[in-house]
Structure formats: structure tokens, C-alpha cells
Amino acid sequence: xxSIQARLSTGLLFSLIIAFSALWLLVSISIKTLAEDYxxxxxxHDAETLLSTIEFEKDGKLTLADQRIDLVxxxxxxxxxxxxxxxxxxxxxxxxxxxRLAPVVVNTDEQLLTKQPGPEQQSLLVISRGFIKQGNPxxxxxxxxLNPINKNIIQFQYGFSALALGMLLLLVIFxxxxxxxxLMPVTSIHTELKKLEQGKLERLxxxxxxxxxxxxxxxxxxxxxxxxxxxxxxxxLSDLAxxxxxxxxxxxQQTHNNDSAEASKKTILKQTDEIYQLTDRILKRARLAGxxxxxxxxxxxxxxxxxxxxxxxxxxxKTVHLATDIPADINCPVDRQDMLELLGNLLDNAYKWAxxxxxxxxxKIDNNFQICIEDDGPGANPDKxxxxxxxxxxxxxxxxxxxxxxxxxxxxxxxxxGSISFQRSDKLGGFRADITLNCVSN
Amino acid sequence: MRLLLAEDDYDLVLTLKKDLQAAGxxxxxxxxxxxxxxxxxxNIYDIAILDIGLPQRNGLDVLKNWRxxxxxxxxxxxxxxxxxxxxxxxxxxxxDDYLGKPFHVEELLARITAxxxxxxxxxGGKLTAAGLxxxxxxQSVTLEDGQTHALTGTEFRLLRxxxxxxxxxxxxxxxxxHVYDFxxxxxxxxxxxxxxxxxxxxxxxxxxxxxGQGYVFRNDD
Lengths: 442, 221
Hints:
The complex is a heterodimer of chains A (442) and B (221).
Chain A: H1 4-53, E1 54-56, E2 62-64, E3 80-86, E4 89-92, E5 111-117, E6 123-133, E7 136-145, H2 147-182, H3 184-198, H4 213-253, H5 261-287, H6 303-314, E8 321-325, H7 336-353, E9 357-365, E10 368-375, H8 382-389, H9 404-415, E11 419-424, E12 431-438
Parallel strand pairs in A: 8-9
Antiparallel strand pairs in A: 1-2, 3-4, 3-7, 5-6, 6-7, 9-10, 10-12, 11-12
Chain B: E1 2-6, H1 10-22, E2 26-30, H2 33-40, E3 47-51, H3 59-68, E4 75-79, H4 84-93, E5 97-100, H5 105-119, E6 127-129, E7 132-135, E8 140-142, E9 148-150, H6 153-164, E10 169-170, H7 172-179, H8 188-202, E11 207-210, E12 214-217
Parallel strand pairs in B: 1-2, 1-3, 3-4, 4-5
Antiparallel strand pairs in B: 6-7, 7-8, 8-9, 10-12, 11-12
């Protein structure tokens, strides 16, 4: 991808070129128009002065009182000319010498502004006006060479261009400097990231421009999430290694002792079963999203019916009625996979033991998400309740296969800073599990 | 009963295929999702065992595609991850049963039997009809007089197919399809021989011949 610097510079350059060109054009045209307007008004003035010197003699001959006319009209090709025409009579200024202006037809009291070439490559602005003098129609044309003024305008245009170019350069340089300075935090983030990689930093410094802050906060969040996952998989790995050692030792011992083949087989099977279950449980625990979820959230309206359908298919021979008490507007801030794991294990247990009825109630008080599942089965021995809910039991000390699902639930509750308790159900008489999950919505 | 085993774990397939064949199933294999979907649409299988983690096409997608084209083939889904969300997704996709790996072959066989009975609206337990009852584990039949006879592999497969399809006319080619897998020599005359042997064992009236159509197992309900 192109650098931001290059993109901004080209963008700026182009927009400035367009802006300056437009300005240049506008100013040039305005100046030209203004100058010509100004010259035209002066020429008209001169025309009127000239008119006052015109005399018609008695025989109708047209004469001019030369001495009252500006000297500039007498110097040959001075750039200032006049022509007076009345019927067939034609008088021109001495400055014109023998050059004749193109004839123009103008009615009385009308004026006409034209441009035409003059002598010696001059370009003339000609104003012609019709008058009535002593009863005779007269057309007075005054002309002035535009070349000197045009030269001035071109000079101005050059000056303007040079200035614009200078400004352009200056602005681009300024922009580069500003950009370099504002991208400085990115460079510092880059070095921070390097340090992060080397383990010299835990998280990025959030003291940065407003545009970058969300990004940094996101990166920090991601760091926390991956850190959490890393910690969990490390834990899972060491748990697994520890937990597998025991069954492996037992299997290894089989090669030494003198048990019968049948007994050895049994022991090995039992131990491999245990390894399977331990692996399964630890993998499940490692997969729990916990607070750092990135996936979809559990929906009571979509996922719960699917779960109930699943349970009904798993227990096709049972007719269990599951009553739910769930507020319609409750939104569950728990990861879908986690919640399915939790409810799945608890409801599976309930389906397994229930005779006919199960009640699932859910409520949310502040950040505490409460789930209660009751059944009308035989229930568990109250002495076992504390054992079931006991947290932090080392994996290899727990009997595999017994309360395995509940152990995963306990892991998950632990992950959500929640609590779990078991008791006898007052309503149905069977087993009752209460789960509280602490859901800090971020 | 002809069974489609869609599983890509070669070691598992080796032992599983043997166990399934020993239990009287004609087994065809598919080691990727695309083949599995194709075979499942052939309409010759009575049941499919489908692994979720198939290469080329995920097992759940295969299942969804079957169900979308109204293929009601009974399916047991296998998965290594054994998580609840997978179970729910599997049933949502149209699975009839679900089994997490690792599993005991006995468990799988029991589930296959249960699902086959369920899909033919048969009660659980032993298959019974016309006073005889079939022990699917022992592959033996108990007659009205209480005598139990062991069955050979083909006899057992044929009788089970008859019992699960009572009252239906079954052509010889259909019987061949459901009793043998792809690799077997198929000769529909063999079916005649085995039908004769079953009649000898169970009494003549059990299996009627419909000329030009095939056989019907007497439905006494």
C-alpha cells in the first residue's frame, strides 16, 4: 500500500494546483477586463474632447482645431490614434500616418468597442461613437494600443505563478512536517510493540492521540484475551501432564506384576478410560471462552429450544416435561458455546435422573446471572453436596466418570467468578443445582 | 442392513469396519465429505455413521445437504470434540443420534440397532414377529417352541432386513443391495438359496413369494 505521506502530498498538490490555476485564471481575466474598461472610458473621454474641436465650415468642410488635441496624437505610431468620419470626409490623427483603420458603422448616439490590428503589430482597442455636430452626422473613433498593458498583465501573471509555485512548495513542506510529527506516536507504538514482543512491556501506553487511542485500547484488550488464553492453555497442559501420569504409571506397572492377562486388560482399560475422560475434560476447560469471549452469545430464544430438542432426542424413551421460568427480555452475556456446555451438562444430568419434571429458571440481578435447575428424580445424598460443589479439587484426585459433567460445570463457574451449590429441591423433591455467574459486561 | 461409514481416521476405520461387519452390516466406506454426500444420496443405505471432521466437506454440511434434499437417511454423528454446542449443532443439522469419540464399539452397535428400530417404528429390544424373536447381539433366532438357532452371517442379515421391513414387498435386487456391500460378489440367485434356508428354519409361511416382484415377510399385526 502507498504511504499515507505520499497519498496526502499528492492529494494536497493536486488540489492546490487546481485552486491556484482557477485563481490565476480569474485574476488574469478580471485584470484584463478592468484595464480594458478603464482604457475604454478614457478613450470615450478623449472622443468627447475631440468632438469639441470639430468644426464644419460653411461649405460643409470638416476641420479640427489641432492645437487643442493632445500631442501624443501627432507622434507617428505612438499607439494613440483617432479617426473622424462624416459622410465622405475622413480625418485621421497624424500618429496614424498613412495607416487606415477598418471602417466601422455606428449610428448617432451609439458606441461600439472593437479590437483590431494596428500599425507595427500593435493590437488596438477602438471605441467609435456617432454624434451630430452642427446638423452633420460624425463618427469619432479613438484607438489605443493594448500591447503595453498586455505586457504588464503578462508580467503580473508570471509573478503570480511564481508566487503560487512558492506557496505550493511551502504548503507541501509544511504538510510533510505536520504529518511526520503527527505520525510520531505511530513510530513510538511500533517501538512499544517491539518491546512487547520481547516481553519488556505488558501492554501499550494509552497516552496517544484520540485517533489512535481506540486502536491501542483494542490491542490491549486483545493482549489481555490472548494472555488469558495462553494462561489457560498452559494450565490445561500442565494439568493434563500431571493427570495423565497416574494412569500411565498404573499401566506401566502392569508389565511388572503377575496379574492374570484378564486382570491386566481390565486395569489397562480402566486407566485408558480415565485418560480419555481427563483429556476430554481438560480440553473442554481449555476451550471455555470465559469473559474473553469473541464468539456469539447464547440466546434463550434460539439456542435453548435447540438444546431441549437435542436432549429429547438423546432420551427418546423418556417423557420429561421441562418447565422454564425465564424473563422474556433477559439477554445472556455468556458465550454460546460456554452456555451450551453448562446447560447441556446440567440438563443432561436432570434428564438422566428425572422422573417426569424439570424446572429451569433463570434470572439476572445486576451483574449476577442466576440459573437454577431442579428435577423430581431421586436426588443426591446431601453428604455428597459439598463434595460435588467443592472447587479447586485437583483433577487427578477426582474420580473419573463420577460427576464428570458437573466438574466441567464447576470449571466454567470458576472461570466466570461464579458459584455453584447443590441441594434438595423443595418444589420437585429431587436434585437442585444453583449456579451464579458473574457477568461484567464490557 | 447396509451401512455407510464416513470416517477419515484410517486406524479407526480398520477396526470399526470389522466390528460392524461382524455385527451383520454390509459396510461401505467414504473417507471424505464429498464422497460421503454422494454415496448417501444413492438411496441404498439403511443408516449412515458420519464423522463431523471429514476432509473436503465438513460432516455437518454433508448432513445439512442431505436434509435439504429431503434425504431422510438415519444418521449417527461422530465427533472427537464431544462438546455440547457440537451436539446441538449436530441435532439441528438433522442428526438422529450422536456419539462422542472415543466410544466403545458396543455403544455404537447398540445405538445403531436402536436407531434402526426407531426409524422403522419398531419398539426397542429384540425384534419379534410371527412368534419368533431375533437376538441381534448373538445373531440367533428363537422360535415359537422356544428353540434357539444360531444363524450364519448372511441368514442373520437377511432375516433382520425382513423383520425390519415386515409386510413390504422386497425384490431380490433390493435384498442384495441391503445385504451386501460394494465389494461383495452379488448374485441374486444366492438370495433364493438363503430364503429357502430361512423357510426351512422358520416354517414355510413366514416368507411369501410374490411372483415377479419378490418376497414379503408375513405381517401378523
